[in-house]
Amino acid sequence: MGDRIYFISDLHLGAPDYESSKVRELRFVRWLDEIKADAKILYVVGDLFDFWFEYKHAVPRGFTRAIGKLAELSDMGIEIHLFTGNHDMWIFDYLPKEIGATLHREPIEREYNGVKFYIGHGDGLGPGDHGYKFLKKVFANRFLQWCFARLHPNFGIGLADYFSKRSRAQTGGEDAVFKGEENEWLYQYCQEVLEDRHFDYFVFGHRHLPLDLKVGEHSRYVNLGDWIQYFTYGVFDGNTLELKKDGE
């Protein structure tokens, strides 16, 4: 086991169709094979799946290669942290048990070698996006989750998967455009957090756009991009966090 910390986000496995998703899944599995030699910790920072909902005795079909490879890394002693995103917030206990991962629903704070990290998927943070913030509260409501689970999986998973793909298709183009620091909600959120306490790195996903921006005098905001268009990830070598592209 190595000493490097890896960050990856927004694979959206399952989208836009089975064939293209399988190609990306195999690329992800190959990447996991490559990093397992020097990885100590792996952060999967949300939206591993384009949709996921766990029933008590049923889960969505597919993704067996990715899930199995993550479990293999965990069995090797690599610490795995899995964040829920806005597309797979209905991960409950199945994946943490099968993968051996620690599940996070909110941003977390970590410190490695004196370097301070603030890590989260990024959805619903910062100003704006009030419609989604309301929907997130609805989707996170335990009673409403219980109600949805009363639907037969054939209907419930199919219905939710349809709306998940529709939502991503409607907003996907916006993610490819940098809006300027004054209009980037996560950048503004980093500025707000820094008013109270210091972090060297803010690491988020959700935005689907690889970004490495200076925030304040001594901090950086790193957005991990995605594995649909960019195939980017972050790696911390004990001193510096670097944003890299698979295959380069």
UniProtKB/TrEMBL annotation:
<dbReference type="GO" id="GO:0009245">
    <property type="term" value="P:lipid A biosynthetic process"/>
</dbReference>
<keyword id="KW-1003">Cell membrane</keyword>
<dbReference type="GO" id="GO:0046872">
    <property type="term" value="F:metal ion binding"/>
</dbReference>
<keyword id="KW-0464">Manganese</keyword>
<keyword id="KW-0472">Membrane</keyword>
<dbReference type="GO" id="GO:0008758">
    <property type="term" value="F:UDP-2,3-diacylglucosamine hydrolase activity"/>
</dbReference>
<keyword id="KW-0997">Cell inner membrane</keyword>
<dbReference type="GO" id="GO:0016020">
    <property type="term" value="C:membrane"/>
</dbReference>
<dbReference type="Pfam" id="PF00149">
    <property type="entry name" value="Metallophos"/>
</dbReference>
<protein>
    <submittedName>
        <fullName>UDP-2,3-diacylglucosamine diphosphatase</fullName>
    </submittedName>
</protein>
<dbReference type="InterPro" id="IPR029052">
    <property type="entry name" value="Metallo-depent_PP-like"/>
</dbReference>
<keyword id="KW-0479">Metal-binding</keyword>
<feature type="domain" description="Calcineurin-like phosphoesterase">
    <location>
        <begin position="4"/>
        <end position="209"/>
    </location>
</feature>
<dbReference type="InterPro" id="IPR004843">
    <property type="entry name" value="Calcineurin-like_PHP"/>
</dbReference>
<keyword id="KW-0378">Hydrolase</keyword>
<dbReference type="InterPro" id="IPR043461">
    <property type="entry name" value="LpxH-like"/>
</dbReference>
